[in-house]
Structure formats: C-alpha cells, structure tokens
Records
---
Amino acid sequence: MHMPRPKLILFDLDGTLYLNGQLFPGVTELIEKLSHSDFQYGFLTNNSTIGPRDYYRKLKGLGLKLRQHNVVTSCEASCLMLHGLGLGPEIYVLGTRKFRHFLASQGFIHSYSQAKALLIGFDTELTYRKLTEATRLVLAGIPIVASHPDPVCPGDLPDAGMLLEYFKAARPGTIIQAIAGKPHRWLVELLEQRFQVRREEIIMVGDRVNTDMRFARNFAMRSILVLNGQPQPDLGEITPDLILPEIGQLAEQYWTLINRW
C-alpha cells in the first residue's frame, strides 16, 4: 500500500525527548530544525498527572520551540472519550489534583456519591482513602475507563495500568470500558482534529513498544522507535519503520530519510 507523504511528526515525552527533566542530547536542535521545515510537529504524552498547559510550560522551560497547540495529552483525550461514551458529568477521578482540575475546566464534576463512572489516571497522590472509594465503586459495578494503559512510567513509577489490573483482581470479570491514550482510538481522533491531518500522514516517535509503536501500527502511521541508550526491547509482532539508538540522530543522519518518506 502506498503511504502518503507525512505531514506531522509526533514525539512521546518521557523516555523519548527527556528523562527525569533532562533533555536528551540533540533534542533542542531537532525541534529547532523541525520549526523551519515543512513538517508540523507535536508533543504527545499518556501521562495524566498534569494538564496540557502545564506540559506547555514545562517544555518551554526546557528551551523547546512550541505553541500550546503543539501539546496533546491523555487528559484531553479522556474528555473526548467521556463525551463520546456519554459518561458524566459526575465521575470519580482517581488522579492528581491537576488532572481533576483540568477535567473540571471541561465540565466534569468529581464526585463519589453521584459518580456515573470511574476514571483512572496516573495518580502520584494516591491515598488509601482514594483507593478504598474507587474499590467500592468498582465492586458496585460502575463503568471503568482510564486515561492510558501504561503499567509503569519511565523512572520505574507505578502507573495507571497497574491500577487497572488491581481493579480487575478486586472484581473478577471486570471489563474496562475504554482507554483514552496510546495505543487507542480516542487520541488519534483528537490528533486528526487538532492538526487537520489523516492518521496515515503521521510519524510516531517513541520509546515504548506497547504504547508508542503499537499506536502507530494500530492506525497505519509510520513509526520510529528510539532507544536512548537502553537495550532494544522485545518487538513481538511490531515492526517499527526505523530504530534509532539516540533521538538526536533524527536531525542528523536520518533527516534526509524521513524527508523522502
């Protein structure tokens, strides 16, 4: 099948462009080069601890050239998912205060007593009380959705996917109704709306096989797996179009290649 010329390059954040708040070598130069090219570019994350405005400030603070428009998170995809499924506006948000605040700005109301669904995010502020309330909602049979499926965040931090497995164990037979982030469809619909491109015109650049590369495969995008000094993971049935030892190489020896795709 002939692939159309790509118009948008998407970058995962944690583990792809930076780790522990430090940019990998060559990232600043890569984004600068993209800003003068024919490509649109975006920054894409499953991490729902903070909202898109916070990510915009974080990336600007790291010295990257971008606008708010360039940042897409699972927070926004979660809102699209909730609207699409007709859930809410009252939901129980198992997530950080900033995640709850973003959802509130989009019309959703955090509620335990009147919750129409449980939304699971990456909750770095998780408490036993919150876990107990969410567990009781699950045992009562409330619909469960999640911002993203990652079990572990870069930095070896327990993530939303680990909580999904916990709730499946708490109530055997539990079905997760939908997941907003990579590699699922709500995020790609958001991207097509935001950047006015078709999914086949996207290049996905990331470090995770089960989220970034699977996302690309699920929606017929081109894909670039970045190792950044880590050993190559098991690819399974996934075949990235390109595997880079370091992200900075994209602006150097591989720049001509992606411009010929």
---
Amino acid sequence: MRVSQREIDKITIEFFDSQGVAITKSMERKIETTFFKEDFPRCAPSDVGSISFPSRVREYYVDEFLNHVKGQVFEEDKVPFCIVPGSNYTRKTKLGALSTHAPKVVIDYAMAETGVLLPDLLGQLGIETVVLNSSIRNSPPRQEERISMRKQLADVVKALGADLGVQIGRNGEQMTLVDEAGQIIRGELLLATVADIILRDKPGRSIVVPVNASSVIERIASRYGCKVVRCKASETEIGSTTAKLEEAVLGGSANGCFIFPEFQNGYDAMFAVGQVLEHLTYQGRTLQQAVAELPPLYYQVDSVHCPWERKGRVMRLLVEKHQDRPMELLDGVKIQTRPDHWILVLPDAVEPLVHVYADGSNLQNTSADLNEYTQLVRYLQKA
C-alpha cells in the first residue's frame, strides 16, 4: 500500500506474485470484480492470516546492491589503499585504465524516504554526493513543487561542477537526470539515454519498452546487436514481460521507471542511478556526451478528451478507416503513416482521455501527423 503517484490524495493497493512481479491488469480486474461483488466465502476469525515484516531488509538490499555493482565495473581493492578515498572498490575503464576521479553527484530526494539509504550506498562506492530536499514529510510534493525542485537541481549541478544530478521519486521507483551542463533529462530522452548507456556494455541482450516508446530505441539497440521487445503501455506489463524474458537486461518507460532483472523484478531508481554511474565510468563518457551521441529523436504527444462510452467507437472507426495501411493492435491502434513514421492512438485506462503519440524521422512530418490524428479523434467522436 502506498500513496498514488497520479493522485496524491488516494492510496494505491498493489499485489505481487511469488517472484515479486506486479500482477497483470487482467488479474487486477478479476480481483476487483470478486471484491466488489463480494463473491467469496468468509473465513473464521481463527483463519485470518498475519502480516510479517522481514528483518534486516536494509542490510540485505545494501549487500545485493554492492554485489551487483562490483561485479561489473568496480573491482575489490587488493591493495592497502583505495584509488578513491573512502571506497572499497577500484574503478576500471573499458580500456583497462584506473579511474582516479571520484564522481560528484547532486541528489534531490524530493522529501522522500530514499534519502535514508542512497547516500550510504554511493558513499561506499566512493561517490561524492550533495543532497537536496532530504527532510522527510508526510505529504509528497505536488507537481509544481517537483518542477521547481528540478530547476533548483539543475542550477546546483552547474554551480558545483558536478558530474550529474538526479531527482528520485517519492516511492524510490522513478528518476529524472540532469547532466553537467544543467540539461534536465526526462521522458523519452531519459529512456533513450539509459538504454544507450546500458546496452552499450550488454551486446546481444534485450530491452523491454512499452508500445508507445519512441522508435529511437530500435535504432539504439541495432548499434549493439540488441533486441527490442514491446509490450502493452502499463508499468505492470513492462515488469511482467521483463521478468519472463531470460535475455532481458533492462525494462523501462518514459515515466523514468527502470527494471534491472539481474538485480530484482521491481522498479528501482536507486539501483538505476548506480548503474548509470558505473557504466558511464566504465565507458569513459560523461552524461552530456551520452545524450549528444544519441540518434535524432522526433516524438510528440497530445491528449484528447473522450467520454468513456465513445472510446470503443473511436478505436473501431480508426481500424476500419486504415485497413490499407500497416497497423499494429498490441495496445491501442498503431498506424504507419509513412516510412519511418507512426501514430499510436491509445485510450487512457483511468481518465476520459485518448492519447495520441507521434514518432518519426523529422520534426515537420511528426508534427503534421500529430495534428491530423488529434483532429481525427475529435471528429470520430461525433461521427
């Protein structure tokens, strides 16, 4: 149980299977239907189960975190001193050289509980941290507060000459990055950046992204001989698909949530920060360089109000109208409008909205496609 990320005045109840993977939307609906119909037997008071709280969870997490980090880029020191003061590990670059530069990271905890754990983790890796908004408060910051915090983070990163900055979401699952020049990296740009950083050192592996992610992911994956697996556009589907795919090394979305199945089957922004830092160190690149080396990204999104009772009609008419074009119905209706360009029309699962996603190889055609199909969705509601 936790505070909803969409509506902070509501509580979200989540269920996980025995592997720690969030259950699918279809299973959620079955549970909700059974609960609201009260179509289940009542048990005796003596049969009510108990809630157990595992001990030493923090210690186990820290141990696993460090074990997964040191095996990839850092090596345990076998000398009586450390290259980086305060660290138990020596950094090695891809070329085999020793890195004597201790990364400096500015972390904005957005008044969440992750500030209790992450500084110690990064400190054990010899990473210097500067902390912002670390005091914990009961109510999470609202959207306008988070935007203001991100601007503050960007200013502090530039002023201190830090290697990068990161804002951690309240539940420790979502992150936003800031490069050394103060550029805020989020959305599709963040997904593409993390994908490029991780896949560069994992050739031949797979990445899981939702159907609405930009096609820049395929172009990045092709650089390193990697495979892209797309799934429905929900956090639970990304998690379950990543967990089932043996060769998957990363699962993520433009929401800034990432799964590293070699570590655990849940979204973990703290581990994502560690992965970004270690792979950049290994590659001998800065975050700004990683962003600059990405393929061109032309991606736009708009939302159209659509009453619940008309969503099905809009989607049906869209399919009928585009029978002569390449189409994908994995989630919503995805239409290839021209070579290297596509449109995805996807109903919102919670709000009376239909989202329109446009992706392509140039800005002019991408914008034209978005305008055309947002108008078409409005028209089909009245047809």
